[in-house]
Amino acid sequence: MSEPIQHTGAVDLSIVVPVHNEEETIPSLAAEVSEALAAAPGTWECLWVNDGSTDATQRVLDELVAARPGHRYLELDGRFGQSAAMAAGFAASRGAIVGTLDGDGQNDPRDLPRLVERLRAGDVDMVNGVRAKRNDSLVRKISSRIANGFRNLITGERVTDVGCSIRVCRRQCLAAIPLFKGMHRFLPTLVRMQGFRITEIPVHHRPRVRGKTKYGIHNRLWVGLADTLAVCWMQRRLVWPRVRRTSGEGLEGRAEASGTPST
């Protein structure tokens, strides 16, 4: 389903970063993003999505966009969760390529150029990161491994590390993604369900040195297992019609680009 990457927005690459109460990590992470993308070909933006933070996150973001070119933000009207924040960022992004990054600093922005380069090879539509060496607690590692294995077993997928948040994809991959709580944990599977091709490459994973983790065994493992059953249902019931050709001018691909799944 691959096709040449085309410039469809104001920039070539958009990086979406959902954040909730990450006042301590944003300045250093933003500096790393700017440094990592400075030498990358094309234009870029980093779109921070403030998901109802109650600390000084918004003040830090205001200062960031005033001081660093290429960075901008969305401030959501309340806390809606990582999936909703990510979806809002996708909708507001302007790049032909869209990437994601965790706001806690554990993803290494220096991996982004490698991911984009692999995507530009032209034979895949999404490049998903695989954490080569997890720097998390034993409980988080075990709960993630159980949930990831269960997802693959039930959905029939073979995504090595669906919990890794650093990835890039063609904009077309995100046009019809269904939004539900927990969607971000299934993004590679939801993209593949539409017929897009995915590959994985190893990426760095760093220990969290600032802020507090938002996830534990109760809101990661058990919720993830329940969401897997919902995605399994979607695999059987949702369809994404694609237009082969049309007699109308300027209509090619419109159903694929803007259509929504039907039941």
Key traits:
263 residues, alpha/beta, Spore Coat Polysaccharide Biosynthesis Protein SpsA, Chain A, seven-stranded mixed sheet, 7 strands, 16% strand, globular, disordered N terminus
In the residues, how many domains can be counted? 1
SSE order: EHEHEHEHEHEHEHH
Our Rg estimate from Cα atoms comes to 18 Å
Shape: globular
Strand elements, count: 7
- Read across the widest sheet, the strand sequence of neighbours is 3-2-1-4-6-5-7
CATH topology: Spore Coat Polysaccharide Biosynthesis Protein SpsA, Chain A
Quick one: CATH superfamily?
Spore Coat Polysaccharide Biosynthesis Protein SpsA, Chain A
Q: Which consecutive residue ranges, at least 5 long each, have pLDDT under 50?
A: 1-7, 251-263
Overall helicity: 25-40%
